[in-house]
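Summary of Year 1 activities. Much of the first year was spent building the evaluation harness for sequence design. The harness presents a backbone, in tokenized form, and records the residue chosen at every position. We chose the following record to illustrate the format because it has been used consistently in internal testing since the harness was completed.
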């Protein structure tokens, strides 16, 4: 049976663990596990042999267990595991292979190499994470079995890629994946600058109207004075038109006072608006204008 002779040598090594000088000794169950693995391999039960070699390697990792793992995997057509295990066994310093074992492992590794592909994966950016068939890889130099393999390349700030690799066997190549950066969101639109409202003509109109009414009201005082004199003359002569004259006097006084008061108020409000101040304040202060006749004139007083 293929590879029986080399495995027999492994069994012999397991039975005589003291033939080589080593820093540490294997655990007590190691020799028994190796013996069972060799027996399973010789019986053609390669899956069982591979499982036992894997158990022995966990107990005491060394070149001989790696070689057994690689040979079992090769018989099971798991050429990727076979290639990796046999290649590692060639360089292991723990229980290194004999010259004959080394030559046989090298030959078998080269045969397994025909059924795997060696791929070097390069990424931009260089820190991108690469997963092959869902598993993260530690190195960007990977060994893949024949067939189709799905990759996922991701990096923060970049759009992920999902390339597919087809492995025919025996090839060695380098693939490069350049990720595309995520689009940068445009900056928010700048707030519009405040636009000063167009100048209002209302304050000026109020001032002009107030001044006009004030002048008209002041001028009406002459009419009131004339009606008042007529009433006084009628009182002295006991004329029949005193009622009419008194009514006209009162109307003249009302028109005069109203013109002066309203004109003063409009002028003051217009002046305040022109200075950009509110016409009324939230405080208790009020603006008022009071006018009253005094002799032949009218006296007005304003408070703010």
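For this record, the design step produced the sequence shown next.
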């Amino acid at each position: 049976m293929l590879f029986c002779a080399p495995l027999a040598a492994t069994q012999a090594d397991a039975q005589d663990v003291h033939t080589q000088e080593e820093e540490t000794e294997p655990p007590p169950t190691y020799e028994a596990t190796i013996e069972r693995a060799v027996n399973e391999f010789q019986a053609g039960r390669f899956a069982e042999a591979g499982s036992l070699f894997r158990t022995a390697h966990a107990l005491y990792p060394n070149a001989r267990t790696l070689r057994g793992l690689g040979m079992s995997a090769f018989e099971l057509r798991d050429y990727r595991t076979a290639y990796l295990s046999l290649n590692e066994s060639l360089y292991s310093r723990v229980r290194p292979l004999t010259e004959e074992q080394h030559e046989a492992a090298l030959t078998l590794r080269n045969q397994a190499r025909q059924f795997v592909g060696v791929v070097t994966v390069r990424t931009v950016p260089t820190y991108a994470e690469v997963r092959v068939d869902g598993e993260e890889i530690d190195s960007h130099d990977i060994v893949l079995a024949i067939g189709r393999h799905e990759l996922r390349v991701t990096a923060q700030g970049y759009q992920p890629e999902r390339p597919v690799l087809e492995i025919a066997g025996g090839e060695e190549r380098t693939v490069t994946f350049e990720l595309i950066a995520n689009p940068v969101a445009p900056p928010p639109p700048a707030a519009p600058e405040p636009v000063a409202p167009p100048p209002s003509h209302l304050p000026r109109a109020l001032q002009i109207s107030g001044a006009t009414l004030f002048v008209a009201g002041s001028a009406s005082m002459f009419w009131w004075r004339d009606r008042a004199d007529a009433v006084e003359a009628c009182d002295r002569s006991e004329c029949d038109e005193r009622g009419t004259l008194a009514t006209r006097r009162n109307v003249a006084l009302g028109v005069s006072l109203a013109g002066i008061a309203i004109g003063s108020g409009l002028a003051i409000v217009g002046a305040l608006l022109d200075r950009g101040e509110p016409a009324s304040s939230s405080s208790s202060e009020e603006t008022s204008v009071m006018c009253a006749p005094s002799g032949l004139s009218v006296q007005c007083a304003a408070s703010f």
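Confidence is low (pLDDT under 50) at residues 1-22, 277-287. Quantitative recovery figures across the full test set are reported in Table 2.
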